Amino acid sequence: MEKPQYNTDIVKSFVHSSVLWGLVTVLVGLVVSVQLTNPELNFPPYFTYGRLRPLHTNAGFFGWVVGFIFATFYYIVQRLCKVRLWSDKLATFQLWFFNATIVATAITLLLGYTTSKEYHEMEWPIDLMIIILWVTFAVNIVMTIIKRKEEQMYISLWYMLAAIVGVAILFLVNSAAVPVSLFKSYSAFAGTNDANVQWWFGHNAVAMLLTAPPLAMFYYFLPKSTGVPIYSHKISIISFWSMIFMYLWTGAHHLLWTPVPDWIQTLAMAFSVMLIAPSWGSVINGYMSMKGQWHQMRENYLVKFLILGITFYGLQTLQGPMQAIRSFSAFIHYTDWVPAHIHMGTMGWVSMIGFASIYYLVPRIYGKELYSIPLANVHFWLALTGQLVWSISLWIAGVLQAGMWTAMNPDGSLTYTFMETMVEMYPYWWARTAGGALFFFGILVFIYNLFKTVRNGEKTAPLTAIAQGRA
Ligand code: HEM
Ligand code: HEM
After folding, report:
1. In which domain, by residue range, is 77 found?
2. Residue 1: is its pLDDT beyond 80?
């Protein structure tokens, strides 16, 4: 079989963009965190919490996470299909268009243009840019898969395809709006329908951006890093199809106790609990793949990131279903418990897998050994402790908040005023900033290590072959 010549330049460029947007995400995350404890650090009109928070979430989702999805998918798809990317030109266009879209998003959000739909705040002209971006990506990946030389489709390709199709459908439906000017539109849906569509989109964005792609990476990079295959292809396929089937019904768990019809809420609750099974299918498959290899947790920094990542995924997919139960939701909804859940997912699961993937890719696409494994370990510990401090402090804050909000005097009046509950939050919010700062220092160490790898890393023949697209 003639040897394919892979495109590695595009992977490099997406890694650069993604790391840059990752840095912006955590930096703005730190700023909004400090703004909550020190409101005098709001600088109206542009640099207020209300405008910076969506900048943080969108830079996180669409810059950092989507950036490393593009980088890793382009690396993985060529190797799993044993062919070069279908179109280099389309991929290069996508790279520039991607960065232009994120910049346009950042500017319009700071200027105050927003649809006010969470994770979909961008106004309609940017929606159009996102659609063009996603179509170029989808065409390139799908065409590469169609002309593949490897008949079998490994599980990572299934997760990739699900993410591509899933995001396209969700985004198109939730984008339906009537523009009234260049930067103002009104949703095509009204009232509870609007809410229902929005959270069908919102939760499936979690499924299709924060779950399926990191699983595609986990299934590819874990065996590559340990040197042994995954435990069971059968489990991977069964959990894939059951996860895809179940996620789509769960969106209304964000709307418990609202005017959305009761049966829709109950359906969402039931499917959320059922989701534990397919989620844990992947977790168990990951753990079982480590059979006889657990010593690598000590010796192999990539394995540390990957296994801690899948562990947080496991915890996240137990906590999530719990939050989807009406009685539990009544207690924690609107409290700081929820951001703690989110950041265990985004910092613990998704970012850990992102870090591992980038640590795996950079030595290969540059043909140089990683500059410093001890520094990668320092990064690991900073990311882990930073995330734990972030989430644990806010779980405590959430329970305290919920307890104070629901406390009642014998005469039925509330024991605490809202301001009293706010004042109690300060120590926990400071702890969150401290956790965020640790995570941020970790990212600085990560970037320094990558930079030194590219500059001073030692060249080796097998890595050079990969960098030149020959392996
Ligand atoms: C079995 C899987 C999961 C279930 C059933 C689940 C359930 C939930 C529920 C019920 C909420 C709403 C909490 C509230 O506002 O009261 C929530 C919020 C959220 N979850 Fe999960 N979760 C799961 C997995 C994940 C994963 C893997 C991530 C990845 C990062 C994640 C990210 C989020 C995000 C970003 C939100 C916040 C949405 C918002 O802005 O309100 N979840 N989840
Ligand atoms: C240094 C690390 C980080 C810090 C200090 C930080 C800080 C914050 C703060 C203060 C909020 C607002 C919470 C609230 O509404 O009360 C927030 C929300 C959010 N952040 Fe982060 N963040 C960090 C990392 C990340 C990363 C890496 C991602 C994504 C990849 C991310 C995604 C989100 C999301 C989705 C929300 C919305 C939460 C919600 O709906 O309640 N964050 N973050």
Report:
1. 9-467
2. no
Kindly report, residue by residue over 326-381, the tens digit of the pLDDT. Answer: 999 999 999 999 999 999 999 999 999 999 999 999 999 999 999 999 999 999 99
Which one of the ligands is nearest to 323 CA?
Answer: 1
Residues 6+ apart with CB under 8 A from 112: 45, 51
> Does the Cβ of 56 fall within 6 Å of ligand 2?
yes
Three-state DSSP class for 176?
coil
CA atoms of 216 and 162, how far apart (whole Å): 10
pTM over 0.85: yes
Q: Is the CB of 63 under 6 A from ligand 2?
A: no
Instruction: Answer whether 254 contacts ligand 2 (Cβ < 6 A).
Output: no
Each residue's pLDDT tens digit, 35-94: 999 999 999 999 999 999 999 999 999 999 999 999 999 999 999 999 999 999 999 999
The confidence score (pLDDT) of residue 350 equals: 98
Residue 301 covered by a domain: yes
Question: Could you give the number of structural domains in the chain?
Answer: 1
Whether 358 is covered by a domain: the verdict is yes
* 377 within a domain of the structure (yes/no): yes
Distance (angstroms) between ligand 2 centre and the Cα of 64 equals: 13
Domain assignment present for 1: no
CA distance 371 to 456: 7
State whether the beta carbon of 60 lies less than 6 angstroms from ligand 2: yes
Query: Cβ neighbours of residue 294 under 8 Å, at least 6 residues apart?
Result: none
Cβ contacts of residue 13 below 8 Å, gap of 6+?
92, 95
- Which residue's alpha carbon is at the smallest distance from atom 15 of ligand 2? 339
* Ligand 2 atom with least separation from CA of 350: 30
